[in-house]
Each structure stands twice: as C-alpha cells, then as structure tokens.
Description:
By secondary structure, the chain is an alpha/beta fold. The chain has one domain (about 1-225): Alpha-Beta Barrel (TIM Barrel). Helix content is about 40%, strand content about 15%. Strands 7-6-5-4-3-2-1-8 form an eight-stranded parallel beta sheet. The chain is globular, with a radius of gyration of 17 Å.
Amino acid sequence: MQNIEKNLSAINHQIESAALEFKRKPGDIALLAVSKRKPTEDIRNAYACGQRDFGENYLQEALDKVDELSDLDIVWHFIGAVQSNKTKQLAQSFDWVHCIDRLKIAKRLSDQRPQSMPPLNLCIQVNVEQEASKAGIRLDEVDQLAEQIADLPGIRLRGLMAIPAPQDDFESQRKPFSQLRQALERLNHKGLDCDTLSMGMTHDMPAAIAEGATLVRIGTAIFGERL
C-alpha cells in the first residue's frame, strides 16, 4: 500500500509539473493506471489512494477483476486488442474501449451496448508511424472512420489513442504526439466534438502532455514490475 501511494503521488506530481511547464491545466490530464497482471489487492490499494481509472489488456483477467471489484466505483478502460467475438463482453462490462481500428468492431459494440448503460466511450487507435508490429489505422484514414463511428447509437467517440515507437530525445517523442493532436483538431473542426488524446506512458509522458494528452497510461511506475 505504501509503495503504491508513494508512486501515485510521484506520478501525479510529474503530471502537474509537466502541465504547468507547457501551459496546461493539470486537471485536464487524467491518469489511467494500467493494472494488467496485477492482483485486485493492488487495485483496491490504488483506489483507496484516490485513483479511479484503471486499464486492462486481457479480457478474461479484466472481467474477473470487474466482478471481484464490483463494490468499487471504478472506471474501467479496455486497452488491449479487440476481437470480434469478444465485443459483447466489452460492451456489457467496460466504460471505455481504446483500441478501435475497424468500423465492424465499433458497430458490434454499438449494437451490443445495453440500453440501460450510458454510452460506451471509444478511442480510435492510430498507428502514427505505420509500424508493422502495431495495430491501428493510418493518419490519413482517421477522418473517414471517425465520421462513420460518430453517429452510431450506444457509443460515444471520445478521441484518438496511439503508442508511438520509443524515442530517446524529447523532440522526437513530441513529433508523433503532435500529429495525433492535429488529427484530433481536424475532427473537431468538422464538428465531431472529440475531447480525448490517450497517449503517453512513463518514458514519454512529458512530451505527450506538451502536445495535449488528456489521458496518460502508466503501469509499472505505479504498481512495480509485472510478473
């Protein structure tokens, strides 16, 4: 508990410092605690320290945690690859899905979201640098997919997410984040009302914040090394 509390405090301080350095409001940047392969006890401890948003990559593990922690008011984000045969479970159990790169998946989530639940928040995954090893659409495909998703019932397109290739220097880190920010600005210019840039992890968080990140994804720096 003490380590998690200390780590969360340090990360939140880093977010605040970066926000102030780049003329951002700290309250406009949310911390998503990536809790994959971590026990529910760690999530409870982080929750007790004030953390509310948690991200999971593996569906069955995530569903078990959602069930076990149903007494807590957690905002659950699915940040792993989305398979067509798993969309019903995602639509019924999560608040956010981050890795949308096909209209088919968005339609299935739309159809399968229970009407009794608020709209499911979606982010389109963009493969900014067109890395063969990563999922996501190209930057020049963003507008079309966003416009197709925007009017689907039961879901809400919130914005874009990306995981750029690791870079050592700050300016190189900023470049793909800048491209993602410009893509979001273009969507808003078209009237799509998107408010989320899900980008930035421990090694490149300041660069992401400099370019407008509204949601940063941090795991190991909070919970320690994964087993």
